[in-house]
Amino acid sequence: ITRRNFLKIAAATGGLAIAGTSTVTSVLGLGKKPVSLPQYIPTTCEMCFWRCGVIAKVVDGKVVKLDGNPLHPNSRGKLCARGHGGIGLLYDPDRLKTPLINTGARGEAKFKKASWDEALGFVADKMQKIKEKYGAESIALLTHGTISTYFMHLLQAFGSPNFAMPSFALCRGARGVAFELTFGEDVGNPERLDIQNSKVVVLIGSHLGENAHNSQCQEFAEAVGKDATVIVVDPRFSTAAGKAKYWLPIKPATDLALLLSWINVIINEGLYDKEYVAKYTSGFNEVAMAVKEYTPEWAEKETDIPSSLIVDTARVIGKNRPHVLIHPGRHTAWYSDNVQRQRAVAILTALLGAYGRPGGIYLSPKKKLEPVFLSDKDYPEPQKPALNKGDYPFAGEEGVTHVIVKATLTEQPYPIKGWFITGTNIMKAMPNQRDTLSAIQKLELLVAVDMMPYDGVMLADVVLPECTYLERHDDLFTVKERAFGISIRQPVVQPMYDSKPGWWIAKELGKRLGLEDYFPWNTFEDFLKMKCETWGIDYSELVKKGYISFPESEAPYITSDNQPKFKTPSGKIELYSKELKEKGFDPVPKYTKHKQPPEGWFRLIYGRAPVHTFSRTTNNPSLWELMKENTAWVNAKVAKKMGLKNEDYIVLINQDGVKSNKVRIKVTERIREDCIYLVHGFSSTSKLLHRAYLRGADDQQLITKYDIDPISGSVGMRVNFVKISKEV
Ligand code: MGD
Ligand code: SF4
C-alpha cells in the first residue's frame, strides 16, 4: 500500500475500527450473492517488538491480508514475513480458547475448562491467601510485551514491586547500560541508527536480515545499494556477510579484543575526530593509555583475525568517519563482560564523531509528552524491598529475570510463592531450565496469560487466554524514530473463542482483589481517548491513520543550533566512566579472556531466522510452512571427519550431559570449526502445539550454564560447550 492510496482509503472508510458488514450487491453476481467491501483498518504489529504499523484488510469479518502502514516509520509500507504471518496466529487452531485450571499436580497440564468468573475467582482467592501468609511481595511477575503494562500496574496496586522482563538481562540490557554510562541515554528501541546514510556499516554479531527488524533491514538494503562498505564480524558467514566487503570470522568470545585493537589503531594513526572528541567527550587520555597494550598483533592471537586485516578495517572505519555505524546490537547477553564490550562499541562510536552525525547514530527527537498513567491512585508502599535489580548496581528498570528465579529457589531475602507469567515463554527465554522447574515446584500459585499453549503455559495452575493483537486495544506506542510519533493498536476483528484482552483480564482480577479504583475506565478505548485528549491528539485521526507524526520534533544531527545534551554526570560523552570506577569496575574496558572449548567440543552459538521470533511463532501455520524446524550448523571439515552428511540427524550433548532433541545437521563452510549454531526457540515440549511439538533442537535446553555480568546482571549465555552424537 502506498502512502497516497492509504490516505485515500482512510478518508473513504473513515478508518473504521472493528470491521462491520458493509455489503453491496455484486453487479456481476446478478444480485445473487452480496459481496462485502473490504475494510482497511490500521493497527500495530506485535509479531516482534519492532512494532510496525499495519493495515489489516478485512472482508466479511475475516482478516484476509496484512500490509505495512506507509505512514509509520517502522514499516514504511512494508511488513516482514512474520508481520504478514499475523493472520496465521489469529487463525491458529491450537490457540488457547477458554480459561483452564490444572486439576493434576503442578506441571501435569491436566486442564479442565473454566469460566472466566471461576478462573479469576480462583486466582484472586489464592493471591489473597499468599498475601496473608507471606506478604504481597511474595507474588512476582515475569512478563514481556504490551501486556506488561496492565499486570505491572495490577501487581503494584496489590503491593508487589517484583517483576522482571527478558528484554533486559537476556537481551538488550547490557547495551542500554553501556550507552547510558557513555552518552547518558540508551540508543533506543528501535535503535536510532542512521544506516541509510552510512558509508561503513560494522556488524558485530548483528545478523541483519536474519534478525529481521523491518525498517532497519530496509535501511541496510539502501546503504548496500549505495555501495556502503559492510564489515561483518561473526564466527558464522551470516546473510549480511554475503553483502560484506570484509568478513572477519572471529573466534567466539573475543570481540572485545578486536574492538580495543581497532581503538588502538584509530588513536595511534590519528584517525579519530579530534575536534569532536575535544568538544564533546571526557577521558580521551585515559582511553589512549589503556588501549596501548591492545595492538593488532596481540589481538590477532586472541581473535584469529590477521593483524593486517585488523589494521585495514580500522583504517576503513577511521577514514570514513563520522559516517560510520558500529551497530550496537540488540541481543547482547553473550558473556560476563557484556557491558564492557558494549562500552567499547560506544567509545569507538564517539571517537569517530559518529554520535549525532549522518550515517552514525542520530539524536532523539525533541517532543516530550508527560506520562498518563492507568490511574492517578498511588500504589501502596511495598513492605519489603523490591528484588528486581538484585545486587547489580546498574541493572535497569525492567528487572533481572534470574534474580526472581533465585529468590524463589532460596526463599532469600524472602519467599516468593506466586508467579504470573504474561507474554513470555519462560522455558525458552531463560537459561538453566532445571532451576526454573525447581523454582516452579516451590510455588503455591502459577498463572499464565498467553494466547498459545507454549511450554511455560503447560506448567501453570491457571491459564488465562489473551486474544491476539489483532483483536484488542492496547496502550498507545510512542515511537522515537527521526521524528516523534504515536501509533495505535486497535481491534480489527472481534476476539475469537472466549479470549479476552490483557487489560480486561487485569481489570477483572483487580475487581476481585478490591482494587477497582486502579482501573477507573470502562473500556480501554475510554482510557485511550482520555490520554489523547490530555496530549492534545485527535483520537479520530489516530484511529483513521494508525500513526500520527510530529515532524517538528525531528533534529537528528548536531548542528550549530542543535547542540546535544548528554545526561551523564559530566555533561559530556564519558569515554572514561567515573560512575563505573566509583562502583569498583573498570572505568575504561579491559579485555577479559573467556574459556574456549576443549578438543572435541564446540561452543554453542545461536541466533534468529527471518521468519520466526524467539519461540512464539514456531507453531504459526503460515510461518511454520516457511521453516518447520531448525538445523545444527556444523563446519564441513568437522562433518567429514565425523562421517556426517548434510541433513543427517544428530543429537547435541552439553558439558552437563544434557541431550537435545534430534536435529538435522546443516553441513556448511559458513561456520568456524569450533562452534555449532542453532536458531533459537525451537523444539517445544507442549503437546498442544501440533506443529511445533519436538521439532528441531532447543538451544535453551543446552544452556545449563550461564555467566553473569556483575555491572548490570546481564546474562552470558554463550558459555556452553556441546559435542555431537550420532545416536538419535
Ligand atoms: P518467546 O519464546 O517468543 O519469547 O523471550 P520471550 O518473550 O519469552 O515467548 C513468548 C511467549 O509469549 C509465547 O508463549 C507467546 O505465545 C506469548 N505471547 C506472544 N504474544 C503475546 C501476547 O500478545 N499476549 C500474551 N498474553 N502472550 C503473548 C524472549 C527473550 O528470550 C529475548 S527478548 C531475548 S533477546 C533472548 N533471546 C534468546 C536467544 O536468542 N537464545 C536463547 N537461548 N535464549 C534467549 N532468551 C531471550
Ligand atoms: Fe511485525 Fe516484522 Fe515489523 Fe516485527 S519487523 S513488528 S514482525 S512487521
Characteristic key phrases:
single chain; 728 residues; alpha/beta; Rossmann fold; Dimethylsulfoxide Reductase, domain 2; Barwin-like endoglucanases; 7-stranded mixed β-sheet; 6-stranded mixed β-sheet; 23 helices; 29 strands; globular; binds ligand MGD; binds iron/sulfur cluster
Describe this structure in words.
- With 728 residues, the chain is an alpha/beta fold.
- The strands form eight sheets. The protein has a seven-stranded mixed sheet, with helices on both faces.
- The model is unreliable at 19-30 (pLDDT under 50).
- The structure holds ligand MGD and iron/sulfur cluster (SF4).
- Ligand MGD is lined by residues 46, 144-145, 147, 166-167, 170-171, 331, 422-425, 428-429, 449-452, 454, 466, 469, 502, 606, 613-616, 680-681, 699-700, 703, 717.
How are the SSEs ordered, and which strands pair?
Elements: H1 3-13, E1 23-25, E2 34-36, E3 39-44, E4 53-59, E5 62-68, H2 81-84, H3 86-90, E6 100-102, E7 111-113, H4 116-134, E8 139-143, H5 147-158, E9 163-164, H6 166-183, E10 200-204, H7 214-225, E11 229-233, E12 246-248, H8 255-268, H9 274-280, E13 281-282, H10 284-290, H11 296-303, H12 307-319, E14 324-326, H13 338-351, H14 401-410, E15 418-422, H15 426-429, H16 433-441, E16 445-450, E17 462-465, E18 477-480, E19 484-487, H17 502-512, H18 524-535, H19 539-545, E20 547-550, E21 573-574, H20 578-582, E22 602-607, H21 621-626, E23 631-635, H22 636-642, E24 649-654, E25 663-668, E26 675-679, H23 699-702, E27 707-708, E28 715-716, E29 721-725
Helix pairs in contact: 4-17, 5-17, 6-13, 8-11, 8-12, 8-13, 11-12, 14-16
